[in-house]
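Before a computer can learn anything about folding, someone has to put a protein's shape into writing. The outcome of that step, for a single protein, is printed below:
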Amino acid sequence: MRGGQVTLFVIVGLALFFAVAILYLFVSAREEIATTDVNVVSSTITTCVDTIVHDELQLIGNAGGTTEFTGREFGIVGNVAQRKILYAITKNAPGPLLPEAHPPPRYPENGVTIATTIINPATGMPWAEFQDGYFGDVNFPAICTTDGRNKPGSTFSCKYYENNPPGTKGTATQALLEQNIAQRLQGCVNPDALSTELGQTITAVGDVSVSTLFTFTNLIVNISYPVTVEDTIHLSAVTRTYKVRYLPLARYAIELARKETQDITFNIVTDYASIPSYKPGFIVQVSRNVPTDRPADLVTITDEHSSIDGTSYMFSFLVEHRTPMLQEIPSGKAEDVTADGRLHGAQIAMDPDESDITIHKIRDNGFIKTIEAIDEDGEKDWQDV
């Protein structure tokens, strides 16, 4: 082989080598740029998700477990920063025992007797686990969906599902949270702004997918968000964990409310830790007579083991004031009833809302005709004697 031919082959070989090297570096650079761009998108999504989830958790907690009020009873509390809050306990409304488990109201009425407050007067048996009580209806939304990550039989099963809500039927809290996060995330992640920032064409593709998991200690949120970077589709996935014990807290709120409607001697302020689903760190406070459309108290459960931005998480709901109760007064004992509703030392006049009771004796020709138990709102139960 001649020297000129060898030189030619060497030159061609070097040219091919440099061409392949330049192509490799070009492709590598594009892949690196694309990876960087996808990371920027993921970082933007993460920031948006954190902001949105924190806000939604606070909105839901402040309102009694929902931001969906159509078909639900709610009050508006506050003058400057008004907020809608669920009436989680209302006065009894007539209805069947099952499936809603709202017994018909049997008080106030002349001479009502309840025998014992832990017994369902309609059945003579202790209250069933999923029943509301004699002293009010419980109106919380369901906590979880039956087909989500907290579905029945799962590790973190929920107890209160959309097919057996503790109160008014409607969107479960879990579904509402996922729906609101997805809707707000679409508006938070702006592909046009990212394209301008990165100098690359970035376009959102498809829908945002959101799934949530309530554990006993946290809320876990998974987001998938397909995007294109320079005509290449990438699936941006984000998983975030929030230190909020929403599942045990919401369940406790429901069972606290049920106990409040089933036992007139139960006091939310002093007895809240006696509920079996109570967890250390839960603190219950009651604001009496909050300004809303009807006489009501505001119950707030603070969880010292849950926090958002360093502040303990809170769950609040309204309790509509209910009618006081007067047990049946035995014949000939009307004169012995004291002004504060006692008969021979036993309390026979009580109020579910722990307000003071006044006994009013209506006389006819000097003899007691009717005894009334009147609460601070002027509502009463009575007995003709």
Notes: The mean pLDDT is 82.
